[in-house]
C-alpha cells in the first residue's frame, strides 16, 4: 500500500526536482528528461508515495482506462487497430491510452509505468521483453496483440504462417514461378517472423530450396521502394516479390513501375493485410486479408472481462482466420477464391 504520509512536496525534495515535475511523472503527461523521471520514480518507489489520482482509482477499484502499446503509429494498420479497440472500450465507458515506444531502450519501464494508470493493457507482440511482459501481467490484465507471449499471458493473433504458405504456394504451384524474394524483417516482429516461416514452408512442400534470407526492410511504403532498388538491379530481378505487408508491396510496385517494368508480366508482387489501397492501385494487389479491427476488439474484450472479474478464465491464445485475396498483381483475374487460408 502507498504511504499516505509522504507528500508530493517531499518527493520533489527527495528527487531534487520541482513539484510540477513529480506531477508530470506520476500522471504520465508532459515532457520530462529520462534522468529526472528516473529520480522521481526511485523516490516514489522507495517511500511508497501514492499520487492522489491513483488513490482515487484504487478506492473505486478501477481507473476507467485501457492501455494500448505500439512500437509506432505509422500507416493504416495501427489506425485500424485503434478503431477496433475503441469499438469495445468506448461502450464500456473506458478511455484508451496509447503509448508508442518506438522500440526505445526504456520501453519496458514506460509500459510498466503505464500499468499504474490503466485497468489492463494490450501490447503489440515484440514491443517489450518477455520478463517485462510477465511483470506487467502480474500487475494488470494483459493481452499480446498480433503476436504470442508466454503461456501465462493471453494473446490474439492471426494464422500468419498458413496464410503466407497458401499465398506462396499459389505462386510456386499455380503460376510455376521459382525465383521468389521475401521482403520484410522478421527480427523483433512475431507477425513477419511467422510469415517468413510460412513462405519457406511453401518451398519445402514443393520440394524446392527456399531463399536463405529475406530482404530486410521496415514496414512502410518508402521501405518497399528501397527494396525495389536493391532487388531490381543489373537485370537480376526475381520473378516475384512476396511482401510482409501491403505498404511494402505498394512501395515495391512504385519502384518497379518507375523502372519501366510491367506488373505482373515482368514482375509479380504480393502483399499482406488487404489495406484499402491494395484494391485501388493498378494493378490491384494480390494479398491476404486479415481482420485487423477484430484482432483489437477481441483483445479489448478480454481485458475488460478480466478487469471486471478477478476470477476470469485462464489466459488463452486466440488465432483468427485470414482470407486469401487474388487480384491482378499475380497475373490472375481479379476474382478472389472462396474460403480462408486452407491447405
Question: Which features characterize this protein?
Answer:
343 residues, alpha/beta, 434 Repressor (Amino-terminal Domain), Rossmann fold, six-stranded parallel β-sheet, 13% strand, elongated, disordered C terminus, transcription, transcription regulation, LacI/GalR-like_sensor, Peripla_BP_I, DNA binding
Write the layout of secondary structure elements.
Blueprint (H helix, E strand, L loop, with lengths): L7 H8 L3 H9 L6 H14 L4 H9 L4 E6 L5 H14 L5 E6 L6 H8 L6 E4 L5 H8 L4 E4 L8 E5 L1 H15 L5 E4 L6 H16 L15 H11 L8 E4 L2 H13 L9 E3 L16 E3 L2 H17 L8 E4 L2 E3 L18
Parallel strand pairs: 1-2, 1-3, 3-4, 4-5, 5-10, 6-7, 7-8
Antiparallel strand pairs: 9-11
Helix pairs in contact: 1-2, 1-3, 2-3, 5-12, 6-7, 8-9, 10-11
Can you describe this structure?
The protein has 343 residues and is of the alpha/beta class. Among the domains are: 61 residues, Orthogonal Bundle (434 Repressor (Amino-terminal Domain)), CATH 1.10.260.40; 139 residues, Rossmann fold. The protein is 41% helix and 13% strand. The protein has twelve helices and eleven strands. It has a six-stranded parallel sheet with strand order 2-1-3-4-5-10, sandwiched between helices. The C terminus is likely disordered.
CATH superfamily of the domain at 160-290 and 323-330: Response regulator
- The count of β-strands is 11
User: Termini, distance in Å?
Assistant: 54 Å
CATH class of the domain at 160-290 and 323-330 reads: Alpha Beta
| Assembly state | single chain
| Count of helical stretches | 12
Q: SSE string, helix = H, strand = E?
A: HHHHEHEHEHEEHEHHEHEEHEE
Give the overall silhouette: elongated
Secondary structure class reads: alpha/beta
- The CATH architecture of the domain at 160-290 and 323-330 would be 3-Layer(aba) Sandwich
Amino acid at each position: 500500500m502507498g504511504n499516505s504520509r509522504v507528500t508530493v512536496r517531499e518527493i520533489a525534495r527527495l528527487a531534487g526536482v520541482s513539484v510540477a515535475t513529480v506531477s508530470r511523472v506520476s500522471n504520465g503527461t508532459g515532457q520530462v528528461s529520462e534522468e529526472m523521471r528516473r529520480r522521481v520514480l526511485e523516490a516514489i518507489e522507495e517511500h511508497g508515495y501514492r499520487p492522489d489520482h491513483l488513490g482515487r482509482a484504487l478506492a473505486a477499484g478501477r481507473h476507467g482506462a485501457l492501455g494500448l502499446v505500439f512500437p509506432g503509429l505509422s500507416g493504416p494498420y495501427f489506425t485500424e487497430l485503434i478503431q477496433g479497440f475503441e469499438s469495445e472500450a468506448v461502450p464500456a465507458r473506458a478511455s484508451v491510452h496509447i503509448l508508442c515506444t518506438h522500440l526505445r531502450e526504456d520501453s519496458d519501464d514506460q509500459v510498466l509505468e503505464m500499468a499504474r494508470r490503466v485497468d489492463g493493457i494490450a501490447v503489440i507482440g515484440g514491443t517489450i521483453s518477455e520478463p517485462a511482459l510477465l511483470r506487467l501481467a502480474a500487475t494488470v490484465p494483459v493481452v499480446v496483440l498480433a503476436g504470442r507471449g508466454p503461456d501465462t499471458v493471453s494473446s490474439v493473433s492471426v494464422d500468419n504462417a498458413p496464410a503466407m504458405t497458401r499465398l506462396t504456394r499459389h505462386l510456386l504451384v499455380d503460376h510455376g514461378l521459382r525465383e521468389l524474394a521475401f521482403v520484410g524483417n522478421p527480427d523483433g516482429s512475431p507477425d513477419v517472423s511467422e510469415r517468413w516461416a510460412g513462405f519457406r514452408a511453401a518451398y519445402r512442400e514443393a520440394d524446392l530450396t527456399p531463399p536463405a534470407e529475406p530482404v530486410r526492410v521496415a514496414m512502410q511504403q518508402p521501405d518497399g521502394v528501397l527494396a525495389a532498388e536493391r532487388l531490381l538491379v543489373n537485370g537480376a530481378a526475381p520473378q516475384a516479390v512476396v511482401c510482409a505487408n501491403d505498404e511494402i508491396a505498394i512501395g515495391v510496385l512504385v519502384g518497379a513501375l518507375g523502372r519501366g517494368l510491367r506488373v505482373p508480366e515482368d514482375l509479380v508482387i504480393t502483399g499482406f493485410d488487404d489495406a484499402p489501397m491494395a484494391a485501388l492501385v493498378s494493378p490491384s494487389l494480390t494479398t491476404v486479408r486479415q481482420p485487423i479491427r477484430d484482432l483489437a476488439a477481441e483483445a479489448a474484450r478480454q481485458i475488460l472481462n478480466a478487469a471486471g472479474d478477478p476470477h476470469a478464465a485462464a489466459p488463452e491464445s486466440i488465432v483468427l482466420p485470414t482470407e486469401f485475396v487474388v487480384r491482378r498483381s499475380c497475373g490472375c483475374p481479379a476474382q478472389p477464391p472462396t474460403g480462408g487460408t486452407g491447405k
